[in-house]
Amino acid sequence: MNQLLIVGILMLSTAPLYAQDQQQNVDKLKVDTRNAVGVIGADKRKTRTYCQIIDLRERQQADQENNKNKNNKKKDKNKDKNKNKKRAEALSQKINQLQKQLEPEFSRIDNVLNHLDLQSPNGREIALIIQRIYESCPE
Q: Which of 62, 86, 89, 117 might form a disulfide with 123, Cβ 3.0–4.6 angstroms?
């Protein structure tokens, strides 16, 4: 019985420490995101490069959707598949080249976006920080 009581007390006493550690991680993530957005946003060339990456990624997703829809409707010929594959590879290479120009800030932002929980208040706050760059992009 004493062991169970000790375990219960330990669990209750360490829970606030765990929550405090999580909050520190979220706060650090917000600061890192603000810094990365600030570095990119302060330089017009970097902002333009970031916007190009977003545009190319959108094209890439649209191409993938189009190819998926074509494959569902009919069997593509090998010639069309090769053409689509080459276009996808060219887009990927262009995106990678542009991303290298924005390192390490781009990786920080991209990593945050890939793990962002938009259902949480912290996730929405971080998304708003990142959205500042999007607002700088031309339509």
A: 117
Give per-residue pLDDT as tens, 24-61: 688 888 999 999 999 999 999 999 999 999 999 989 88
The Cβ-side half-sphere exposure at 108, using a 13 Å CA radius, reads 20
pTM value is 0.73
Alpha carbons 89 and 83: distance in angstroms, whole number = 10
Give the contacts of 91 (CB within 8 A, at least 6 positions apart): 56, 59, 60, 63
How far is Cα 113 from Cα 111, in angstroms, rounded to an integer?
5
Here the tokens at position 53 are 């990456």
Query: Cα(60)–Cα(134) distance, rounded to whole angstroms?
Result: 18
Cα separation, 45 vs 34, whole angstroms: 18
